């Protein structure tokens, strides 16, 4: 395969591959069972690019889109990149506070917004000096409509992407915001194409892939680019139940699904009578990551989809994929190490260091992951990023993990989430994984409760499955039988109806900790 980095820009990459696979189906909206070819996507994105040029958009500008997945919301991404401008995506579920922060932060020249979120965007712009052009996906009597700006343009067949410096910022993605307000992570044309190229070397079959994440997330953007790379079809759907996912797999004979671990429970908790109702034999790969996947849940998925490899990978928005197993060569490792994030991706270097002393650690020693990759971000938008790197130029991930004798990677938590009990480091995610194995438990979070002499003691907030019951003493005993003495829930157990999470299922830990401490104090 010709190296992607030989491409001049992301705009050229998308433009050329849309032409190469012009007759293939590019995207399917499973919510409405409607599809679109690469040829149609290219035609509409070229028309929009010309319209944006007429509005004065140049490579210096930022274009922002705020929408759930639709057949339309990939078009501004391509059009913006054709012009060498910078594309940013928001998820409407972020709410007013986060959205206002992010819109103000990146100062967009143009905002594309779905009809239902126009009011929120207007609220975000109040009290700011920003006066972006607004284009609405749908109907509007006040603003330009997306359908109008994608109408035929004169000489559209002569259009070609703008030549740009491949090291200029092309895509801005936001950190997950699980510990505070998100930051804008800047990827250049070069770094983004590198991450697509590195991901392609895993050789997952993406001729058809289902996903639920919007383009706000790195996963959504990477899936878009990977489908263009091979002419595959991207199938998307809203937040649906498990049986609907099975229907979609059967209807489109899907080969792959990408989903956050928390959503995999929607599949495994389907009634047994419904699990055999659909033909899902086409499925070959379930890609997941972002939060830990328990060994028991992995077994459940394998029972439900016996023809599919369940591949748990590790990555960061700052550099995308870091590790995963290779289905064709790592079968024995995948089966014997179900909780591993796999082997380090080609061209990526990882070292494990002591979080306090920076000493480089060996196999089976837990420390912070420091990572170097050709796909590394340019930096954070309008922020000094120097403290994010160590003296060797490795990114300080903030993640805790280790590698074993086979050089398989394990990620066990976040440095900032750790707390000390009697001078022992406690990693909350390891205890949370144990709690999640209780049959009555749907979700759980573990936090440290301050104790004057002991430091912090573990406490848990638990969400029970609908129709299930459990006493706090039952949860405490269940955990005590499966963890070390220092990991026992000495801080207690409280119950809640839900935990604060991002749209992809990542726990907003800071908010969760505040809730737990408040409940324990009552």
TrEMBL record:
Does this entry carry the keyword Cell inner membrane? no
Keywords in alphabetical order, please.
Ligase, Peroxisome
The answer on whether this UniProt entry bears the keyword Ligase reads yes
Q: Which Pfam families match?
A: AMP-binding, AMP-binding_C
> What cellular component terms from Gene Ontology apply here?
peroxisome
Q: Which part of the chain is the AMP-dependent synthetase/ligase domain?
A: 14-381
The primary location reported for this protein is other
| Gene3D superfamilies, sorted | 3.30.300.30, N-terminal domain of ligase-like (3.40.50.12780)
Q: One GO molecular function term?
A: CoA-ligase activity
Q: Which residues form the AMP-binding enzyme C-terminal domain?
A: 431-506
Which family is annotated? Belongs to the ATP-dependent AMP-binding enzyme family.
Protein name, UniProt field: Uncharacterized protein
């Amino acid at each position: 395969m010709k190296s992607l980095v030989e491409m001049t820009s992301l705009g050229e990459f998308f433009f050329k591959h849309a032409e190469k696979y012009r007759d293939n189906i590019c995207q399917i909206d499973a919510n409405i069972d409607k599809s679109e070819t690469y040829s149609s996507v290219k035609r509409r994105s070229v028309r929009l690019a010309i319209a944006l040029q007429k509005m004065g958009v140049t490579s210096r500008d930022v274009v922002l889109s705020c929408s759930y997945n639709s057949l339309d919301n990939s078009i501004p991404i391509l059009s913006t990149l054709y012009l060498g401008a910078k594309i940013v995506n928001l998820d409407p579920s972020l709410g007013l506070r986060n959205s206002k922060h992010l819109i103000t932060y990146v100062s967009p020249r143009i905002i594309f917004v779905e009809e239902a979120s126009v009011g929120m965007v207007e609220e975000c712009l109040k009290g700011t000096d920003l006066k972006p052009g607004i284009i609405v996906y749908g109907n509007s009597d006040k603003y330009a409509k997306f359908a109008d700006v994608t109408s035929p343009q004169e000489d559209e067949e002569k259009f070609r992407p703008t030549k740009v410096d491949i090291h200029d910022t092309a895509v801005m993605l936001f950190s997950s915001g699980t510990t505070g307000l998100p930051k804008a992570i800047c990827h250049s044309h070069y770094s983004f194409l590198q991450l697509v190229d590195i991901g392609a070397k895993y050789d997952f079959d993406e001729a058809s892939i289902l996903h639920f994440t919007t383009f706000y997330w790195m996963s959504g953007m990477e899936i878009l680019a990977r489908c263009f790379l091979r002419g595959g079809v991207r199938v998307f759907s809203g937040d649906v139940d498990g049986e609907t996912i099975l229907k979609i797999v059967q209807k489109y004979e899907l080969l792959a699904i990408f989903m956050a671990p928390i959503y995999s429970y929607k599949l495994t908790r389907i009634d047994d009578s419904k699990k055999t109702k659909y033909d899902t034999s086409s499925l070959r790969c379930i890609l997941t990551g972002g939060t830990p996947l328990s060994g028991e849940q992995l077994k459940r998925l394998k029972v439900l989809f016996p023809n599919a490899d369940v591949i748990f990978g590790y990555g960061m928005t700052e550099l995308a994929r870091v590790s995963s197993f290779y289905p064709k060569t790592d079968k024995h490792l995948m089966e014997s190490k179900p909780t591993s994030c796999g082997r380090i991706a080609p061209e990526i270097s990882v070292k494990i260091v002591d979080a306090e002393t920076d000493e480089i650690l060996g196999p089976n020693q837990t420390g912070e992951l420091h990572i170097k990759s050709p796909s590394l971000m340019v930096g954070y938008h309008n922020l000094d990023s120097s403290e994010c790197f160590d003296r060797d130029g490795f990114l300080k991930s903030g993640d805790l993990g280790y590698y074993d004798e086979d050089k398989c990677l394990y990620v066990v938590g976040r440095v900032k989430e750790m707390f000390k009990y009697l001078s022992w480091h406690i990693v909350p995610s390891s205890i949370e994984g144990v709690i999640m194995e209780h049959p009555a438990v749907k979700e759980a979070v573990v936090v440290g409760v301050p104790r004057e002499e002991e430091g912090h003691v573990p406490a848990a907030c638990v969400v029970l499955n609908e129709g299930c019951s459990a006493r706090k003493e039952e949860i405490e005993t269940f955990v005590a039988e499966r963890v070390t003495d220092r990991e026992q829930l000495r801080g207690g157990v409280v119950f809640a109806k839900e935990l604060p999470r991002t749209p992809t299922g990542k726990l907003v830990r800071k908010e969760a900790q505040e809730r737990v401490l408040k409940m324990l104090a009552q």
